[in-house]
From TrEMBL:
Residues 2-99 form the ABM domain. It holds the Pfam family ABM. Keywords: Monooxygenase, Oxidoreductase. Coiled coil: none annotated. GO terms for molecular function: monooxygenase activity. This is Quinol monooxygenase YgiN. It comes from Friedmanniella luteola. The lineage of its organism: Bacteria, Bacillati, Actinomycetota, Actinomycetes, Propionibacteriales.
Amino acid sequence: MFALVVRFNLTDDDAAARFDALVADLLPQIAAHEPGTLTYAVHTVHDAPLSRLFYESYRDRDAHAEHERQPHTAHFLQAKDALLVDARVEFLTPTGSGT
């Protein structure tokens, strides 16, 4: 499995609404076209209404690469930039015996 967490910090309430609309368009496309994407969960951060946290898990690195090649992902990645203060990506490695 390959997993990552991304935190997006948005510029203002309007940007947050526009970002959430992009996510609403993105999620069904991922579900329909990406069998290697195991989890793609999006959350608003408690006490940080202008932040969104994505948890993504993929069957393997190849599935993540396939996700990155999708036109719906490319559209999201391009469109989100104008809405952000910053973003941080954390690639995860399993620790211990859990999966």
